[in-house]
Amino acid sequence: MDAARLKLAVQKAGRLTDPSLDLLVRCGLKLSRGKDQLVGYGENMPLDVLFVRDDDIPDLVQEDVCDLGLLGLNVLEEKRLEFAARGGAARFMPVRRLDFGRCRLSLAIPTEASWQGVDSLRGKRIATTYPFLLERFLREREVTAHIVTLAGAVEIAPRLKRADLICDLVASGATLEANHLREVETVLECHAVLVRTPLILPPEKEDWVQRLLMRIDGVQQVRESKYIMLHAPRSALPEIARLLPGSESPTIIPLEGSPDRVAVHAVCRENVFWETLERLKQAGASALLVLPVEKMLA
Ligand code: PRP
Ligand code: ZN
């Protein structure tokens, strides 16, 4: 592989795969190979995407095989604790919190089992693929329990009598429900994260990292942002500025032939709901238009 090109590790098949690729496409990346292959070649950026198991992503950045990685906070934190326990330090730095991959690492017990808070954990066997995060959770609450570390299929451990309860990721809750388990306590709220190597990269590579970060910021801002246009009496401008959600200094344009009325254009950094439009109308606004924002660069 070409050392002059950035390497970004992405989950091969899982909850983060599609939103990760969507983010990269919105950042302008054209990948020449599909996701069934191990490497996607960036045609218009010196950046290649490696498709791997999410659990391997921290190690790939740690060992400088990859410069960047897109992964869940759950995997990131688990690996960070694991490296610390081995007396080392993690060499992957979180650089962006991403607006997808929301889920939580939670404790779940058989539906019919009783639960009186974390005290109910004492002496119990808890199956998980996140032993370090679970150990920290138990230690902070001064609870002694047995951690049963598994490589996967944690949700069936109680039925197989390998554990009394589990500590696993929950997104929709469908997996728990299918396995007659119920969520009782959150261990970690999770979302996707972009990590990078702490190494000083050659200037051209570093430049692309910074460009990618700026584009990611732009994409994430745009997802919520709207461009709003309306007509309003000059006298209503203070009230209208107050009603526009998350907007900075709107543009005021005079309207030919009506000296009392102006056109207002503004970028709103939050979604614009019908309620807001109704209030703007009550404040004297007319000809309201709300448009999606395609790209943004601060
Ligand atoms: C998690 C977890 C459950 C499932 C929960 O696995 O282990 O199986 O997702 O999701 P749900 O609440 O929407 O049913 P994940 O997809 O992260 O795969 P991995 O742990 O093998 O990487
Ligand atoms: Zn995984």
Provide a descriptive summary of the structure in words.
This protein is an alpha/beta fold. The chain folds into three domains: 6-101 and 192-221, D-Maltodextrin-Binding Protein, domain 2 (3-Layer(aba) Sandwich), CATH 3.40.190.10; 103-190, 3-Layer(aba) Sandwich (D-Maltodextrin-Binding Protein, domain 2); 226-292, Alpha-Beta Plaits (2-Layer Sandwich), CATH 3.30.70.120. The chain has eight helices and 15 strands. The longest helix is centred in the last third of the chain and has 22 residues, at 203-224. The radius of gyration is 25 Å and the shape is globular. The model has no long low-confidence stretch (mean pLDDT 94). The site of zinc ion has 2 residues, from loops.
